[in-house]
Structure to design on (430 residues):
């Protein structure tokens, strides 16, 4: 994914410590341990720029839910009421811990080596400590977006000063910090983020009236290249101009936006304004977080919409997305939007070694005829063979390393049982 390095049908990647040292055919090294990558694609790990990992215990319960009760039909069963209104308030630190850890390991298993974890559950400083402990233990690369919580014990946003000192004083670690600051919020968190020099992440959904707020904040000089916006659906032309002019990043969660009524994922609109999107999973209560699903949805949706215009006889059409385009969104652009391009996003000598090996000799992929095509149109998470984060092997030949899945599963089931009972939300198995 680095045009300066190029692509190779057969080559070596030399890793020393946490860094990539060299890439090319027949590297002349005699004293290295060798991983035989025959029959695999060797590429950078995927980067998810918006995932609410604390919610993992809620997986699939809201598969048919909408984002909110928007006054239109179908909105009775919705995310804002059930997840933010009822379930999130009852979270204990141990629920945050197991949700974060389980999600991190599951995503490592799927080759998603980096996440912007949008943690909207900081009810007390102990909740934040539990989240960070889980993220550290997982051995994954995480930009932890410290966001608000609920209740009298909530120390948001000022507790970020303690967190920064206690956990994030070094920039040479897997864990980095961001501020989750919503567009409608007070400005203290925006000022604190700028004071600490950490990026700001926010939800941006046109249907929620965020467009006008964005334009007002821009007039006050508050929108900058350190902003990341999730969704960017149903925006005004003026809002797109703000994003393009400031260099702010966007994150498209296409499957969730389509099924939960955020609005049509603005893939072509972003490109029309010179904005390259990153991709994200958002919430697993409604949709899988695996990145083959993210890439495939963006690829088929974009092409489907442009193809329909072609069938209606339109002549001036944008280019159809290529497989390489969506892989770039899932890697290079993800790193840029997460402000981690200097470390990851491509296999480049000098960057850190976040590497995945995807099996091309599997029954769903062989024979290999086109590499980007196989990744985007054929593969799924069972093809993720080996996962390396900063030079450390986290998944080896199809299995996570040093993980007691049985123990973790019983912990997350116990957390699930507590959460639904306490929140008085009924689970329906069928
Ligand atoms: Zn979100």
């Amino acid at each position: 994914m680095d045009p300066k390095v190029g692509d190779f049908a057969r080559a070596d990647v030399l890793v020393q410590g946490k860094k990539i040292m060299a890439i090319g055919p027949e590297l002349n090294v005699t004293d290295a341990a060798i991983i035989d990558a025959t029959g695999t694609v060797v590429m950078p790990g995927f980067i998810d720029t918006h995932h609410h990992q604390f919610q993992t215990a809620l997986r699939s319960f809201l598969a048919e839910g909408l984002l909110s009760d928007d006054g239109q039909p179908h909105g009775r069963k919705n995310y804002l009421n059930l997840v933010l209104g009822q379930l999130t308030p009852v979270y204990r630190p141990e629920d945050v811990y197991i949700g974060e850890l389980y999600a991190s390991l599951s995503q490592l298993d799927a080759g998603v080596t980096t996440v912007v974890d949008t943690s909207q559950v900081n009810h007390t400083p102990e909740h934040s400590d539990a989240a960070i402990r889980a993220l550290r233990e997982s051995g994954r690369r995480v930009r932890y977006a410290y966001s608000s919580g609920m209740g009298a014990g909530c120390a948001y946003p000022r507790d970020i000063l303690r967190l920064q000192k206690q956990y994030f004083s070094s920039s040479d670690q897997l864990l980095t910090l961001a501020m989750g600051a919503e567009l409608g919020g007070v400005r203290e968190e925006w000022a604190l983020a700028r004071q600490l020099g950490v990026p700001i992440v926010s939800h941006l959904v046109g249907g929620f009236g965020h467009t006008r707020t964005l334009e007002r904040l821009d007039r006050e000089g508050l929108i900058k290249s350190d902003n990341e916006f999730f969704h960017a659906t149903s925006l005004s032309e003026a809002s797109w101009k703000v994003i393009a002019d400031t260099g702010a990043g966007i994150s498209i969660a296409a499957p969730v936006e389509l099924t939960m009524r955020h609005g049509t994922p603005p893939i072509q609109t972003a490109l029309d304004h010179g904005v390259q999107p990153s991709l994200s999973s958002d919430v697993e209560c409604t949709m899988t977080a695996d990145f083959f699903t993210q890439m495939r949805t963006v690829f088929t949706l974009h092409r489907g919409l442009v193809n329909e215009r072609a069938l209606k006889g339109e002549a001036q059409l944008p280019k159809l997305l290529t497989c390489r385009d969506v892989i770039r969104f899932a890697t290079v652009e993800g790193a840029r939007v997460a402000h981690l391009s200097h470390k990851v996003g491509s296999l480049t000598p000098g960057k850190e070694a976040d590497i995945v090996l995807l099996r091309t000799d599997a029954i769903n992929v062989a024979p290999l005829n086109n590499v980007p095509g196989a990744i985007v149109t054929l593969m799924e998470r069972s093809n993720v063979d080996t996962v390396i984060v900063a030079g450390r092997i986290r998944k080896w030949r199809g299995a996570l390393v040093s993980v007691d899945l049985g123990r973790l599963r019983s912990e997350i089931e116990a957390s699930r049982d507590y959460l639904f009972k306490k929140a008085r939300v009924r689970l329906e198995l069928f």
Notes: The radius of gyration is 21 Å.
